[in-house]
Amino acid sequence: MTAPSITWDGLRNALVSLSVERKLFGGIPLPVDGLDLILEEKRPDQEWARFRFRDDPRQANFECSHEDVDEREQIRNKWFSHSTRSSVWIVWKGLPGEPGFKVEAVKEPWGWYQEALGKLTMTMDTLSAAVGAYGFDAEMRALAKLAGLVGEHRFNLYVMTGVLAETSKRSGVSYLFRRLRPTIALKTPCDGEKLHFLAALCMHPIGYYGNTWAGAMVPTDDLIAHLLLMRADEHLFWRRCNQHTIDAKEAGL
Amino acid sequence: MEGCLEVLNVGAGDLKIEFDKDSDAEVKRAAEMIQAMMKQGYAILIEKEDGTHERVSSFDPKINCYIVGDRKKGRGKYRTAPVRKTRATAVARSAGG
Question: How far is residue A230 CA from its own chain's centroid?
Answer without folding.
Answer: 18
